[in-house]
Design a protein that fits this description.
single chain, about 220 residues, alpha+beta, six-stranded mixed sheet, five-stranded antiparallel sheet, 4 helices, globular
Length: about 220
């Protein structure tokens, strides 16, 4: 009988409780989500110069990684990609419910993504897991108008933060295309208080809270 794998963003309440306890003991600030993900993204272009979609690489925090790989691997070694394949499948199937935590726009219009492809889940030598997948646009778009996207959980149960160096790259982009990132403004004191209280009370500070802390990525081509 196969071990049940934990869906990516529905951790057992015991995990959240353990995290809350660790923060209390450490005396850390309470304004935290329950899962942390470091994001690297690649904007994929087709031969006609249209944007085909996004390739994501999501590296999970140490606590979630330990929870995910529990019981996997042999002789203390990290689990293989093959061993992690069922977990990768479960996680990606659950993403559609959350719109893949990826929100793209062009010319004021919201863009729609299809089901992910090229899905893999790997664990490094420290058993930190990284989920990689291609997120194709339902309809590829020309890059003559600025294309923008954000990666975030509206409820901020999960914190998505882009890698500090080279967080977003362009693949096979036409000459002259560029990418820029706009960091979010700091939260107001009242919003910080709300976030801290939500950590212990409701697990979520409210719908669309995550967008306030989301990095805005803009791709522009001549």
């Amino acid at each position: 009988m196969n071990r049940p794998f934990p869906p990516l963003f529905r951790l057992y309440s015991a995990l959240a409780s353990a995290l809350a306890l660790s923060l209390t003991v450490a005396g850390s600030a309470l304004a935290h989500p329950h899962v942390w993900v470091t994001v690297r993204s690649e904007v994929a272009f087709g031969p006609d110069g249209k944007i085909l979609g996004l390739r994501h690489a999501w590296e999970f925090d140490e606590m979630y990684s330990a929870f995910a790989v529990q019981g996997l691997g042999k002789d203390g070694k990290p689990p293989t990609r093959e061993e992690l394949a069922p977990l990768a499948k479960t996680n990606v199937e659950s993403l559609a419910e959350f719109e893949f935590f990826t929100f793209a726009r062009q010319g004021g219009a919201k863009l729609v993504f299809k089901q992910p492809t090229e899905v893999t889940l790997d664990a490094n030598e420290k058993k930190i897991v990284t989920l990689r997948f291609m997120l194709p646009l339902e309809t590829p778009v020309a890059a003559r108008k600025p294309f923008s996207f954000q990666v975030y959980d509206p409820t901020y149960f999960v914190s998505f933060g882009f890698e500090k160096q080279n967080p977003v790259t362009l693949s096979k982009a036409p000459p002259g295309c560029s990418v820029s990132t706009l960091e979010p403004k700091p939260l107001a004191a009242e919003e910080n208080k709300k976030l801290s209280e939500a950590f212990f009370q409701n697990f979520s500070p409210g719908a669309d809270f995550g967008i306030k802390l989301a990095t805005h990525v803009i791709v522009a081509c001549p």
